[in-house]
Write a structure and sequence with these properties.
Number of helices: 38
Radius of gyration: 39 Å
Shape: flat
Low-confidence stretches: 771-789, 795-816, 822-835, 864-879, 902-914, 966-971
Amino acid sequence: MKEYNPLEIEPRWQAAWEESGINKVHEEDGRPKKYILEMFPYPSGDIHMGHARNYSIGDVIARYYRMKGFDVLHPMGWDAFGLPAENAAIKHHSHPAKWTYANIETQKASFKRMGFSYDWDRTVVACDPEYYRWGQWIFEKFWERGLVERRNSPVNWCPGCQTVLANEQVIEGRCWRCDSEIEKRDLTQWYLKITDYAQELLDDLDQLEGWPERVKQQQSNWIGRSEGAEVDFVLCDKDGNVPAEPAEDDIITVFTTRADTLFGASFFVLAPEYKGLAALVEGTEYEKPVMDLVEASKKITAVQRAQGDHEKHGEFTGRYAVNPINGEKLPIWVADYVVADYGTGAVMAVPCGDQRDFEFARKYDLPIIPIILGDDDPLFEQLKDEQNRVVTSVDWPEAYAAEGTLVQSGKYTGMTGGKHSEGEAAIVAELEAMGRGRRKVEFRLRDWLISRQRYWGNPIPAIHCPKCGVVPVPEEDLPVRLPEDIDLSAGETLATHEEFAKCTCPKCGGEARRETDTMDTFTCSSWYYMRYTDPHNTERPFDSDKANSWLPVDQYIGGIEHAILHLLYSRFFTKVLRDEGMLNFDEPFTNLLCQGMVLDEHGDVMSKSKGNVISPEEMIAGYGCDAVRAYILFMAPPDKELQWNEDGLAGMHKFLNRVWRMVYDLVGKADEDTLYQPGASEAEAAAARKVLLREPEVLLLDEPTKGLDAEFKRVFARIIRRLCARGVCVIMVSHDAEFCASYASRCAMFFDGAIVAEGTPREFFSSGSFYTTSASRMARGLLPGAITPEDVIAACGGEVPPEPDLPADGDDAAEIQAQEEAREQAKTYLLPSQTAPLPLWRKLLGALGGLGALICLWRILSISDLSELLSQGGLTSLAGDTFRLYLAMPVCLLVLAVSFSRAAPQPAHSSLGGRPLSGRTKLASVLSLLLVPLTIFIGIVYFGKKSYGVVSLLVLLECMAPFALIFEGRKPKARELVLIAALCALAVAGRAALFMLPGFKPVAALVILSGVAFGGETGFLVGAMSMLTSNVLFGQGPWTPFQMFAMGLIGFLAGVSFQKGLLRAGRAPLAIFGAVSVVLVYGGIMNPASAILYQPNLSLSVLKAYYLTGFPFDLVHAAATALFLWFGAEPMLEKLERVKRKYGLTEAE
């Protein structure tokens, strides 16, 4: 049999396909059309694996539709202009064209070796003059339609690339290409007015049903439509006087979406680039500091300023502007958190409703006037009917940006405030009536800056004439060709190349200068897909009939990184050329696929800078292009990331070898390698088929559905059923109960090394044995009557099988002994039936305590409004009767806990219970009860709230110190530390899992169980560590040390109480202890801590008020803790006891 040799087979067939013209378009044969296109590459060198994946996906789609009978347009070209070619030319003392075309030939050869089915007769190269000629022609059509503008404005300047960038090309303040930090410069540049199409670009996103939602959302956010109003403020003169008849220069206009907050404006802010700023301060004492700030702001990118998360700086200009709604004079500041290219570059600052204004006002001690409040705000009752301004400062931690009720807002007080609210509408109507405002829609999208100060780009076809101004190059003179005799390595540019720059004005015939900026390369890629439909047209960019017959592209494939660059610009070009009458559709791409990235074997993105790029050429040389393409397509869905693993590619090569041998055998040309034997029996034929098809008699699968979504599970089930239909026995080990119930023919359950349940899916899942077996070990402590497999067997008259023999050495022997001991201990350690009966007087006392707690709770809940505890001025007075109710309730709960907790002596088998406190434990008590609170008090009170990080670390070290004493005579074992870490992780996970239920957390329950099982030192460590760690998710702050101390103290008290015999390890005593400790300890620490942190003037009434207002939340917390302990304490303590005895873990001896 001929050996499978892809390096011989693939080139032969690729040559045959090219010779037959199978990939060429046949426009007149009447077949339905399909246009399949991948984004064309930049010729920066040989292709990488990302290219191979992108183009393999597109090639499969193109081949599919050809096989379905479609006439498929599947072209390829190169986005050939750009900075890398220019830099390479400078480095190698060459011309960019030489480097570019050499790389194109290299990539083209690789594409052909990959066997991609391109129509090479339709190739488009952006740097070919016959292509960029029509890019210049389209530019002039834009110019004729008023969509080209040349103006001076602040621009993004990349010092690395030595050119300007569009806003879309600045990513987090850095150049999208070279990652240099962007600077702001004032330059005269060329713009395409994409903003004229902003609304249509936004509206037509709804037409793109075949696009990923994330791409459409990114474009929608970038376009950023805002509905609001323009408001005119009158500028006072330098003496602060309001002009009687304001001139146009006396008006400063702002755009706002929240006109309802005008009464809260307390100052006015201008962007450093604001036109006319220099004139405002010229000749005044404020000129130098203001202009110094303007210079300093150039080092802060527009993106950073728009985000507002950097430190803000400002200077007062000495001027004032008049608020048109109330006539108040507002001081005008210049600040570096305002950007000039959104709105007008001027902002009315409303600190109470905008976080950036709020932070600026706090820094420079400017008024923060509350003019919109929620009903639950402490100031609401005082201000809800107040029309005049009586409060000009607040103690809020942040601005109130939500909707609410307007206050201190004149006749608009009491109206609802917010975007599109009745208050906003009423105030805008008033401004319109006054002639000081009007409705306005603003977009975040800015005009597209296309000027580039580089050589290797499409020249802008414009001429600067001293007499005629700026005029377009006549159509018959296009293209404006790039000079080929330029020496870039010597620093020559288009501006210094006299033969290029010097020209004649086409209008007056006088001397003129040619425009020396080139266009952004994205102008080339914004219409190339149109040129593919008619690539050899010398009269127009393309024939409209041909373009309209093929376009829009049926399937477009490319990276998500182009969502707001190439894809947005292409949509813009399409709409303009449609309006020019050249196209009859609105959108260029019907369906869009954003392919996933290719990662290396470690999960890192492949890049040349990291040196982890995989060359497709090397893989093809080793395995053949069919194996590379098949591996790419099989290993991950096209829109997901693909982690490269050459072992998988080798496996694909083996698979193709197997297919090759099967085909040769089936056509009778396998020679001596054949598995076909004339005259063989049916059994021999079946055996041969199994070998040929590699079908085993038994197939064992381990967790095969792990990681599969529902659709792939259904596909997998169909495959399994086909195998079973062909006689294959499939055995699957799985925890996917739903899949087994849906598709298996029989199910069995293993438990403790034996089959404990078996049957058809209906029998298995409906009999109850599956569920009772799973839960029986944990349920025994809670439900003594829980069914086990042994019970089921005995009830049916069968014999309970003996326990399987296990090897009695090493850890296995220890495990057997631990299991037996745990079973025996469960009879006395956990079951209520084994405890001593309560004396009658304790039962009565406990009942009275519980009844008293219920009565207090009923009286507390009957209070209609907790705010009656507070006066209008703040936390100053307190209702005595209500406080006594709150105080009585925990006392009653304490009576209940004490009555039942001392019900019986501690069982002798417990590793901790009933022992006297050691000297080490007493030392730990001093550290936990005295040193930790002293650390918190000194750190927070004397060094300020910002020191919470250091304080939290000190508290953690202090709570670890007594725990470390356990290991004073030996080294700690890893298993001890791992178990304690696991307990902390469980507490953190429990808090995170129930984040949507405030206060309802299992953290305190787990901390109490840690203390009971391992001692007070461990309880304190688990409590403190779990609060510190979980606050990574919920927010660190000055409250963290208090939380660490409170939760750690609960764990410490639980451990000490259990050790002294004051607390029994039953579910009722633990649940009562948990509820009481949460109310008295956690609430008793955290509620007053809030007052200490946020109230400057502390008093007893303030502390009482804070405790009472937090008490309802403490009750929820207490109920949750009791609930978790009631249901989980006994089974979890049983497991922990088994682990302790098996491994000899930490005990506080």
